[in-house]
Amino acid sequence: MPGASVLVAVCTYQRPQQLEDLLDSLAPAIAGHDARVLVVDNDSKPSAEDLVAAHGIGAEYLHEPVAGIAQARNAAMGRMNEAEFIAFLDDDETVDPDWLARLMDALQTYGTDVVTGPVVSLFPSGAPAWIVDGGFIQRTRMASGTRVELAATNNVLMRVATLNRIGVTSFDTEFSRSGGSDSEFFWRLRRKGGTIAWVDDAVVSEEVPLERLTFRWVFKRGVRGGNVFGRLLRREHGRIYVFLHGSALATFGALRVAAALVTGKGRRSKDFGWLTHGLGVAQAALGSVVYEYDRG
To answer: What does the pLDDT look like over 168-222, one tens digit per residue?
Structure first.
């Protein structure tokens, strides 16, 4: 898409080495494009300012001291009208050299308002086999051009004109401490007519830290995702409907997990995911919120 301007937004919080690695990978990815990088630092002090200033990519720095992932994303959204397109990445990722080109080409090819791509999980040596083989961390991939209902801010490109036209221009700070403000954002976007396409060759990679390779983390993350979904369902359905929906999913998942263990198939993410997702949905029906980003 020749001549199109892009703002690549990165929200960061106390991850200097990972942020530097991301900026290193972005340099070749934005070369040849009318693109610039905006780093939003969500630390209470401007801890990433010197790193960003010293990096050769020439990224802009913005300090958002109010704690919250949605607040940081909104700081970036406040600058979106400076470009035709806005992209988001997480600060613990790296991008392939053709990442931006693939997303830009896809927007033109598919004609959607948003395009999103895969985040490939890179596991450290010694990662538990049950996590790697069971697919508990890896995200789902699909054919390019597939229309999807949701996206995330870990690999996404959006048309600014569409966001302004449909009035989806900020993230809901109610989801800052729990996570899921990006899910809520794209939930609203879809309900206002926005369209999202998958781009399987616009690849982003993420090194999975050891502390995530535990049953406890996988369980809590699954419940948290279900909890976010349940809170969104509550906007359109009554408490009883959401509770029954979550309970049915959890029961189905529990039966699938039990069957997998009995038949020797072990723990599988799809079976386990029904269970944890359902528990989270049911909790949301009861008014419970699972917090993932609570800084105290």
So the answer is: 999 999 999 999 999 999 999 999 999 999 999 999 999 999 999 999 999 999 9
Give residue 182's pLDDT.
97
Residues 132 and 126: their CA atoms lie apart, in Å, by 10
Residue 88's closest CA among 172, 7, 1? 7
Rounded-to-integer distance, Cα 93 and Cα 98, Å = 15
Helix (H, G, I), strand (E, B) or coil at 36: strand
Residue 146, SS3 per DSSP: coil
CA separation for the pair 22, 235 (Å, rounded): 36
CA angle 266, 200, 119 (to 5 degrees): 60
First to last CA, the chain: 44
What does each C-alpha distance from 245 to 89, 149, 150, 177, 277 come to in angstroms? 32, 19, 20, 25, 10
Q: How would you class 193 by CB atoms within 10 Å of its CB: exposed for 0-12, middle for 13-18, buried for 19 or more?
A: exposed
**Both tokens assigned to 221:** 């993350």
d(CA 118, CA 139): 7
Residues with pLDDT less than 50, the chain: 296
Question: Under CATH, domain 5-211 is a member of which superfamily?
Answer: Spore Coat Polysaccharide Biosynthesis Protein SpsA; Chain A (3.90.550.10)
C-alpha span between 227 and 270 (Å, rounded): 17
Q: What is the pTM of this model?
A: 0.92
Ranges of each domain in the chain? 5-211, 214-285
Residue 226 contacts by C-beta under 8 Å, 6 or more apart in sequence?
Answer: 246, 249, 276, 277, 278, 279, 280, 281, 283, 284
